[in-house]
């Protein structure tokens, strides 16, 4: 029964955490028994079971419970199969979504070598606009996961494609994540390539795209600032923040030292 498999999936993360805490007693139980179940359920015939499996996988990755070898030899191959050009549409959309969500939890080398080539292919998927939309919405996270060199060499050309996509929702999603993409690039690429691209979005024929671009204008401009003089920086959660100056801190010793969040780069 699918409901039984779904309930089982929901119990996997707490069991895995227990086994991790009791590793001397159960050194291989998770890798031998639980991880194969999670991987198998990513391809289950029932979409609710697959969804539960995907959520369980993300929790396991977030808790750093999955070994690097299992990620590279078991998880990534399944996701690459599910996101292949000839894969079923529903499976492909789900695989793209999970690839984008797990990118920030994996090592840069794993993302760049195993997942980035497929992500670039999916950005140009002419069959399913839903796939391109997911890629566009998560573009900033992928850029952050792979770093400046891979972003400028492989991702920026794909970003240009998505920014000129015939579906306005794609262009809107690009406008919303523009700051995150810009922050990952060099000042020269930011000035010579991304600035003209942003102007095209802010002049788009669709008012929803223009509105999203105007909302991203301030955050995009902030990426041109020198962090050492402006005090602006991007936190790990993707928010633009400002460090209080030493003068302000000294003048008010009761002032909390927490950073002040100004603008969120989240597409939501």
Q: In one word, what is the shape?
A: globular
Mean pLDDT over the full residue set? 85
Reading side by side through the largest sheet, how are the strands ordered? 1-2-3
Radius of gyration, in angstroms, nearest whole number: 21 Å
The succession of helices and strands, N to C, reads: HHHHHHHHHHHHHHEEHE
Helix content: 55-70%
Helix tally equals 15
Q: Pick out the low-confidence regions.
A: 251-268
Count of DSSP E strands? 3
Q: What portion of the residues fall into strands of 2 or more residues?
A: under 5%
Quick gist of this model?
The chain has 268 residues and is mainly α. This is PP4R1 phosphatase.
Report what the structure shows.
Helices cover 69% and strands 4% of the residues. It has 268 residues and is mainly alpha-helical.
List keywords for this structure.
mainly alpha; 3-stranded antiparallel β-sheet; 3 strands; disordered C terminus; HEAT_type_2
What's the helix and strand layout?
Elements: H1 2-21, H2 29-41, H3 47-62, H4 68-82, H5 89-102, H6 108-123, H7 129-137, H8 139-146, H9 148-163, H10 168-176, H11 178-184, H12 187-202, H13 207-222, H14 227-230, E1 232-234, E2 239-242, H15 246-251, E3 260-264
Antiparallel strand pairs: 1-2, 2-3
Helix pairs in contact: 1-2, 1-3, 2-4, 3-5, 5-7, 7-10, 8-9, 8-11, 10-13, 11-13
């Amino acid at each position: 029964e699918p409901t039984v498999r779904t309930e089982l999936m929901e119990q996997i993360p707490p069991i895995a955490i227990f086994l991790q805490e009791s590793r001397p007693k159960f050194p291989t139980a998770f890798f031998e028994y639980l991880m194969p179940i999670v991987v198998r359920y990513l391809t289950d015939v029932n979409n609710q079971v697959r969804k539960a499996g995907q959520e369980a996988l993300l929790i396991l990755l977030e808790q750093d419970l999955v070994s690097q070898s299992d990620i590279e030899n078991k998880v990534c191959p399944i996701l690459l199969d599910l996101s292949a050009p000839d894969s079923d549409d529903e499976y492909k959309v789900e695989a793209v979504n999970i690839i984008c969500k797990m990118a920030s939890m994996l090592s840069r080398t794993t993302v760049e070598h195993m997942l980035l080539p497929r992500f670039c292919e999916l950005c140009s998927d002419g069959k399913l606009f839903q796939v391109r939309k997911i890629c566009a919405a998560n573009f900033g996270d992928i850029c952050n996961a792979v770093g400046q060199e891979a972003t400028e060499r492989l991702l920026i050309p794909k970003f240009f494609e998505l920014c000129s996509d015939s579906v306005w929702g794609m262009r809107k999603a690009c406008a919303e994540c523009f700051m995150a993409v810009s922050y990952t690039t060099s000042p020269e690429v930011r000035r010579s390539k991304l600035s003209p691209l942003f102007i095209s979005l802010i002049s788009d024929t669709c008012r929803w795209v223009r509105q999203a671009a105007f909302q991203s204008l301030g955050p995009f401009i902030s990426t041109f600032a020198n962090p050492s003089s402006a005090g602006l920086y991007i936190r790990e959660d993707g928010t633009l923040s400002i460090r209080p100056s030493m003068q302000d801190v000294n003048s008010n010793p009761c002032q909390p030292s927490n950073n002040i969040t100004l603008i969120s780069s989240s597409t939501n």
